[in-house]
């Protein structure tokens, strides 16, 4: 899991795919955090992506950097605890103007049953499960 976190942090921007009905939806994200041994992402309640995750929590994340790419398939699990939200906001102070822990808007999700695949054109893929 640490290797996935490090890769996503280094990339800065990654892309998350959700489903809306029968239509895939992909958008850029930039938040990633480790809290209590789990990998977390953050968004806002009420956003389309949040509604899509609630309807179908299976997502895929994709990132590219340094000639290598990462794909992560996982199920997102919401964590409404103020401690989890605050940990994320402490890691991303720029979000504190829009979100506050416990405000009912800040949404954090951790990745459950994740399968991460690191790949490049020059080598065999490496799979990490967490």
Provide an overview of this structure.
27% of the residues are buried. A hairpin with a 2-residue loop joins β1 (14-20) and β2. The chain has helices at 2-11, 48-55, 82-91; strands at residues 14-20, 23-29, 33-35, 38-44, 58-65, 68-78, 106-120, 123-129. It is of the alpha+beta class and 130 residues long. It has one domain (2-129): Pnp Oxidase, Chain A.
Largest sheet: 8 strands, antiparallel
Shape: globular
Query: Could you tell me the mean pLDDT?
Result: 98
Q: Over the alpha carbons, how many angstroms does the gyration radius reach? A: 14 Å
What is the percent of helical residues? 10-25%
- Poorly predicted tracts of residues: none
Strand tally = 8
CATH class: Mainly Beta
First and last CA, distance = 6 Å
The portion of residues forming beta strands comes to: over 45%
CATH-level-2 architecture: Roll
Number of domains: 1
Q: How many individual helices?
A: 3
Structural class: alpha+beta
- N-to-C SSE string, H for helix and E for strand: HEEEEHEEHEE
């Amino acid at each position: 899991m640490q290797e996935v976190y490090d890769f996503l942090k280094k990339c800065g921007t990654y892309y998350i795919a959700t489903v809306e009905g029968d239509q895939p939806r992909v958008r850029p994200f930039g938040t990633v955090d480790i809290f209590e041994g789990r990998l977390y992402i953050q968004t806002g309640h009420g956003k389309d992506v949040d509604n899509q995750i609630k309807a179908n929590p299976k997502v895929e994340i994709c990132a590219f950097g340094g000639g290598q790419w990462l794909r992560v398939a996982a199920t997102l699990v919401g964590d409404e605890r103020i401690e989890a939200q605050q940990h994320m906001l402490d890691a991303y102070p720029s979000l504190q103007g829009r979100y506050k822990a416990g405000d009912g808007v800040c949404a954090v999700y951790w990745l459950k049953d994740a399968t991460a695949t690191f790949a490049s054109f020059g080598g065999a893929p490496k799979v990490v499960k967490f």
